[in-house]
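User: quick one, fold this
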Amino acid sequence: MTFQFILMCMLVTLAACGHDRRSDTADPRDGTSAAISPDQYRQRQSAIADSVLAAARPVEKVVEELGQDYTVGPDALRDTIVALAERSDCFEAGRTTDPYLAGTVNIMARMTPAGTDLVRVLTANTRWTSAAGDLVDACLNTEMRRWKLDARYGKPAGYVVQVRFGGDPSR
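Assistant:
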């Protein structure tokens, strides 16, 4: 008798839940997912990238948080580091994982009388649209070990510069 009761309850439950499938044409505003076109997906990813880039803290705020041992890098240092970072294959390596990758990287360069002795990504102050940005950070840190910048870029100090990497590659 118990077995028949359990079997009957299971059949009733299956019958009641059999039509609870989600529709592929569901409205995304009501909390259910819907199929979207590639163009809609691209627009959504571009909006995410734009919001991450817009929400990045200015380099002045990052320097303020780091304390008096750091200052905003001079324009020549910033331009050189931006060019070196963009010339590396690091961002493209991240894009192989996430084609819509975008983010802002803060880079610290410690200048001595002889030039830079340390250049690295300040990962705590870096913002990416996805975890693929961590690959870019690691790659940049590896690349930057080879960068030797001379003292013409600034007096001995810790400088911070900001590099932005773009969003949707098709725009």
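User: anything notable?
Assistant: The mean pLDDT is 84.
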